[in-house]
Design brief:
The chain contains 19 helices and 34 strands. The strands form ten sheets. Strands 3-7-1-14-11-12-13 form a seven-stranded mixed sheet. The longest helix has 28 residues, at 547-574. It is α+β, with helices and mostly antiparallel strands. Helix 7 (223-234) links the parallel strand 12 (214-218) and strand 13. 28% of the residues lie in helices and 24% in strands.
Length: 783
């Protein structure tokens, strides 16, 4: 059975992505590709108003339209006790509106028809009378005593305030500020953005009337969690629910929440006894599904005269939209925002966040980041940039003076995080070296003397990913562990079933490489299965940069379980004691006699044919991994921009990114993740936002108004790395997470403001557009 062992391409190898063979050939299998016998199609009627009472709803004409099978309203659902569904934050959300709509795009009614075009046409036959109410789109105005009450449905709700959360030591922080030589303040807004995945959200619900089995094909990043929530919402026995998440055309957090369309399609299939498909269009996706950011932040840093940070505090007003559907851990409703101390040794810190209802779509998902880490990183880096300006200190030097030093790890922050490892100055120094920092500073001074504007932006960041230990972190009450089930077949090939769900990150390749590293089975010989709740172990899914830190760790741990058993089998085959066996690269050899060895293939065959007395047959196992701590990837990004003082247009001349994500499983895939995140970071800084007019109309409901970066606008990136393994992760991986999206927006904004600082311009909210830059220069009399 022995095979000649080629070099095992485990950790650190740029193995070509296995999934690309089907995806680039158009052989992917997405929800909209699914067609079942007798399948019906559903379309949703959405409110054109942001805030209004429904005074009448007539569906007779729509129901009579040829090809229409059913029309569903909120009253119909209410009759079955299904009018409301729980959100991931413990709120309730209307499945279909009953008496009132609270955001533009809210679901009002559904049409189920034989054909998707018939369903869409019939929506226009539904007659709805609305009595408009004053909309509230500014969270600060929503908190005013006379603001219209948005959530009248909630018993005891007398204002638009959702919750207050705080972290840190308020008194110690106030003492630090009282003794400071310098206090620097930044008021900034991180605008609402949308993940805008290539594939929108949708489902095919198939409830078999004979068996009661519900198979739901779903655009889901968390199939197992969604199955549990479906059981709670629809009242179906959980063992009768199968969620299948096929290939996902991107997710970025957008496919974590439960959406009303999923529930209505499932109820319709249950009542009609036929499969029902619902796929939203692009505008529906942009105006109604989970958004990100929308944080109004005030930050202050207390400093000594020589630039040492003494204290840090922040106050945030978080706009959660009309329902509190933020995808955050239960005990931390502002997510992990308290990582706002960043990469710095801050003696005292305190943050507080107030969440608010407004007449906007609900959300607050972890979009290309861990929970609210992007907002936190942006705030501290903007504060450091402004502090450097006011202290007349080089921004790089200010950071060096305040970095957590390598010998301080593991480091407990002032708000309770225990950072695993880091070498922040090394990442900064490498970034500055590759940028050519000192020469660029000389050039900047010369150009400003000639009246030209050039800026250099720096952002050093620490992300916190892999939530998290179950005692501290859960989603909707479900502990945030994750899982892996591994079986090695008699021929030495393997199948790995994981609880996380790939959405384009390359899990079918990287997780196979983890098995390769632990057992010596080539990645091509490891099939990776995910997304089907009937055929994978229970897991919390993929979001908030947790796949590798948690699911990858589970994979390593289950492989090690199998290796322990394989060692006992190898000892039996070689007729030596178990402690005399040494394992390396897929070979179990006798210590001191390396030629006496068995391969993993030999051992796998013996697991089914030639076992030690009393040993159970087979070579398989399952692990549920509850991480002891999170991991803390970090890095530094540097940007050089030139500004046209006549137009305010800024152009990126050079961008250097240094990331440290610990051990890199597949460097090629990591580079792809980094490039994607850097492009998105640029988009957020330069062009991307969803906003609303005073009537609550969504400005950003299409790709003409909501701008996505193309290759034309996106600058080139120069990427580098340092490697500081995580000491508690089984393979030392911190996970690349979405560090580029976390760290890079501040670098771009800091670069622009570095150019404008000599003019007295120290703050411009994102997106930093040319008209904002020109207006700021004009106000200062520069143009």
């Amino acid at each position: 059975m022995s095979e000649t062992q080629a070099p095992i391409r485990g950790l650190g190898h740029s193995v070509r992505r296995k999934e690309d063979d089907r995806l680039i050939r158009g052989r992917g299998h997405f929800v909209d590709d699914i067609a079942l016998p007798g399948m019906l199609h559903m379309a949703l009627l959405r409110s054109p108003l942001a805030h209004a009472r429904i005074t009448a709803l007539n569906t007779e004409a729509a129901a009579a339209h040829p090809g229409v099978v059913a029309v569903v309203t909120g009253r119909d659902l209410d009759a079955h006790g299904l009018a409301w569904m729980p959100t991931l934050s413990g709120d309730t959300q209307a499945v279909l509106a009953l008496d009132k709509v609270v955001f533009q795009g809210q679901e009002v009614a559904a049409v189920v028809a034989e054909d998707p075009y018939v369903a869409s046409d019939a929506l226009e036959l539904i007659d709805v009378d609305y009595d408009p109410l004053p909309p509230v789109v500014d969270p600060h105005k929503a908190l005013e005593p006379d603001a219209p009450l948005i959530r009248e449905d909630k018993q005891g709700q007398t204002s638009n305030h959702i919750n207050h959360w705080e972290k840190g030591d308020r008194e110690a922080t106030e003492r630090a500020f009282a003794g400071a030589d310098k206090v620097v303040r930044v008021d900034t807004f991180y605008p609402r953005s949308h993940p805008a995945p290539l594939e929108t959200c949708g489902c095919v619900a198939d409830v078999d009337p004979a068996t009661g089995k519900a198979t739901i094909y779903l655009t889901s990043q968390a199939p197992h969690a969604h199955r549990t929530l479906f059981a709670l919402v629809a009242g179906l026995p959980e063992q009768n629910i199968r969620i299948v998440a096929p290939d996902l055309g991107g997710g970025f957090g957008n496919k974590v929440p439960i959406y009303p369309g999923y529930v209505v399609a499932t109820v319709a299939s249950l009542l009609l006894g036929r499969p029902v498909k619902w796929m939203e269009d692009r505008t529906e996706n942009l105006i109604s599904t989970g958004f990100a950011r929308d944080y109004h932040m005030t930050g202050e840093v207390a400093l000594s005269g020589d630039g040492k940070i003494l204290g840090l505090r922040s106050k945030v007003v978080a706009d959660h939209g009309a329902f509190n559907a933020a995808a955050q851990p239960t005990k931390t409703p502002a997510g992990l925002f308290h990582i706002f101390t960043g990469s710095y040794d801050v003696p005292a810190a305190f943050c507080e966040v107030d969440a608010v209802y407004t007449n906007k779509a609900p959300g607050g998902i972890a979009y290309r980041c861990s929970f609210r880490v992007t907002e936190a990183s942006f705030l501290i880096e903007r504060l450091l940039q402004k502090a450097a300006t006011e202290l007349d200190m080089d921004p790089a030097e200010l950071r060096r003076r305040n970095f957590i030093r390598p010998e301080q790890f593991p480091y407990r922050s002032a708000v309770g995080f225990v950072y695993d490892s880091g070498d922040y100055q090394r990442a900064l120094d490498l970034a500055l070296e590759k940028l050519g920092y000192e020469e660029l500073r000389r050039e900047q001074r010369e150009r400003f003397a000639r009246g030209e504007l050039m800026g250099i932006g720096i952002a050093s960041f620490t992300e916190v990913v892999g939530a998290g230990h179950g005692d501290d972190y859960d989603i909707a009450g479900l502990r945030m562990f994750d899982s892996a089930e591994l079986r090695v077949h008699p021929t030495g090939k393997a199948i790995l079933k994981i609880g996380v769900k790939t959405q384009g990150q390359g899990h079918e390749t990287t997780f196979a490489q983890i098995v390769a590293a632990e057992l010596g089975i080539q990645p091509e010989d490891v099939a990776v299965q995910h997304g089907d709740t009937d055929n994978t172990p229970y897991g919390l899914g993929t979001y908030a940069s947790r796949s590798t830190p948690v699911g990858g760790a589970a994979t390593a741990m289950v492989a090690r379980k199998l290796r322990e058993k394989a060692t006992r089998i190898a000892a039996h085959l070689l007729e030596v004691a178990e402690e005399d066996i040494e394992y390396a690269d897929g070979r179990f050899a006798v210590r001191g006699a390396p030629d006496r060895a068995k391969t993993i293939q030999d051992v796998a065959f013996a697991a089914y044919t030639n076992l030690p007395e009393g040993m159970e047959a087979g070579l398989e196992g399952v692990t549920y991994y509850d991480p002891p701590n999170m991991t803390f990837p970090f890095g530094t990004y540097c940007v050089v921009v030139d500004i046209d003082k006549g137009t305010g247009q800024w152009k990126v001349r050079k961008m250097v990114a240094v990331d440290d994500c610990g051990v890199r499983i597949n460097p090629m895939i990591v580079e792809g993740q980094i490039h994607g995140g850097l492009a998105e970071g640029f988009a957020i800084a330069a062009m991307q936002q969803i906003t609303f007019d005073e009537d609550g109309n969504c400005i950003g409901s299409n790709f003409t108004d909501y701008l996505l970066p193309t290759s034309w606008e996106t600058p080139s990136f120069e990427t580098h790395a340092t490697v500081t393994p995580s000491p508690h992760h089984p393979i030392g991986a911190k996970g690349v997470g979405e560090s580029p999206t976390v760290g890079s927006p501040a670098a771009y904004v800091n670069a622009v403001l570095d150019a404008l600082a000599p003019l007295g311009i120290t703050n411009i909210d994102m997106p930093v557009t040319s008209d904002k830059v020109w207006a700021a220069m004009h106000e200062k009399g520069f143009v």
